[in-house]
Amino acid sequence: MDALLAVDAGGTKCEALLVGPDGALLGWGLCRAEDPTSGTSWGGKGRSKESTLSALRRALGEHRPASLTVSGLGRWDVPELAQPYTPGEVHAVPVAEWDAPLALAGVDWGVVVLSGTGAFVHGAAPDGERLHLDSLGPLLGDYGSGSMIGWMALRAVARHHWSPRHETALTEAVGAVLGIDVHEKGLGRLVDFAHKPHDRAVVAQLARYVDEAARAGDAVAGRILAEAAAAQAEVVRDVVDRLALAEVAFPLVAAGSVATRSALYWAHLCAAVAGFAPRAEPVVPAGPQVLGTALRALGRIGLEHWRERLRAEVLAASPRDAD
Amino acid sequence: MDALLAVDAGGTKCEALLVGPDGALLGWGLCRAEDPTSGTSWGGKGRSKESTLSALRRALGEHRPASLTVSGLGRWDVPELAQPYTPGEVHAVPVAEWDAPLALAGVDWGVVVLSGTGAFVHGAAPDGERLHLDSLGPLLGDYGSGSMIGWMALRAVARHHWSPRHETALTEAVGAVLGIDVHEKGLGRLVDFAHKPHDRAVVAQLARYVDEAARAGDAVAGRILAEAAAAQAEVVRDVVDRLALAEVAFPLVAAGSVATRSALYWAHLCAAVAGFAPRAEPVVPAGPQVLGTALRALGRIGLEHWRERLRAEVLAASPRDAD
Lengths: 323, 323
Hints:
The structure is a homodimer. Chain A is α/β, with parallel strands linked by helices. Chain A has 13 helices and ten strands. Chain A has two domains: about 5-100 and about 285-315, 2-Layer Sandwich (Nucleotidyltransferase, domain 5); about 105-285, Nucleotidyltransferase, domain 5, CATH 3.30.420. In chain A, α3 (about 100-105) crosses α12 (about 290-300). Chain A starts with a strand and ends in a 6-residue tail after the last helix. The interface of A and B includes residues 141 and 163 of A.
């Protein structure tokens, strides 16, 4: 292997790391939803071809490795997209979206709670049994996801004016983000917005404003986070029941921007999980999800001894406020 | 006036009554979503031009009145659609969707709780003040509506297999209605269904199966009805608060297929309302909504003395299981 390209393509952003054969961090690339070079796709902006290409190019920089190992799921055509950037062969080492968080947490099994643009709960039992629930999309499931929280925010804003008990700071924030003045006859525009198709990132991005408002004491925003966390805790419960983990000490690993960045969301979720799995051990791993992908890929191709170097370099570079 | 044509165009069906100048019931026409002559529209099948025309033609039958008075809202072009069926003039007497239930209940003021394909709460205070809340559509509101209940049913079906505690008879019913086998690898087809645009009637029609399942003791269906009713009771609360009706004895009038036909839904809603408006007097008026439209229109054009005749004739004809 001349270089490893780890890719994390999510609903809202695409992130890529370029790693040398000795675990050195060679490059890092991020393309967020707000980036003018980002594209749009059914699964969300981060999974578009344009976003992936932007992240890939930025991670490669001037590097043109003689051969490239590509890892990560989310976009199955990344090896093909990478081909023009290397004179040699491109190999694929698939790393599932649920394995990267386990690698990032430094564990081999446990329950992964992903809440990003979408949401799922993935259980990996000590005996090797696996169970994946949700990933149903924003209309049928994605319990606890940024999309769910975003839609709850839109509904809260829509009834802001019905009664003083529904007033919320979200109205200002959502109005500013979406460019809709819902104070003066703007409700019709919000209804129009709701009925048009949007990239998943557009509604999911509202989750961070819900978290901000909740932290500032907004009661409506606080209830949205609590309700979303309770909904995802129910999914955790299904996984815990079916994998017989209720009495077991297991790592409960946070993944995705909502679970790892909203301390309020995670606190609500952990409190609910403690009710049916008292020995669950919550972990919010340091570092971006794409690092987990790279760590797992290094293990797969026999370079596990370089994992700690890569982890140290990425955490030291403290890449920035990725989401 | 030679004849009055009252029209009730809802999300799922369009219904029309033809009334003589002496209050006699001359004709009745219904076009349901399942009717092959029904059309489709943004607001639901009942509001399509095709459905309206079918109901109109069926109500007219062989009658070709020399002049026609058309009443009802929901489709603003009904007078124009009726023009080819009368040699004379067509007059319009608008009757709002919230006034028909009051007329049907035989009261001049009160709180109308409509839950059909869509949903709203309309308050008419004794001093003439009015407040209309919701009608926001299935994504932003329509709290308690058939659409809301239908989407909750789809979500319940989507997680049926996650755990024994989510098992529900709705899976069988929804699968049969939508033609989707969700037992064997059918979940992907349910996800596909959820992400395609549908006429509002398609999802809203599931509400009646939720009611059936709840009556048969299905716990999941029971919780859906209770949750939807609680959500609409919150809207009633906003109206009661803002019109200062909390201590007043007022009629709480059911309208729409869910509120008038699901006794469970209505019981949950009334119990919740009793908590903040103990003097509310629940009324589920007999007869179809379109009768309310005709009654109100007769009053508006000075023929109020024929209202009781029309009411008696329609109730005696007991037109059938309209929804």
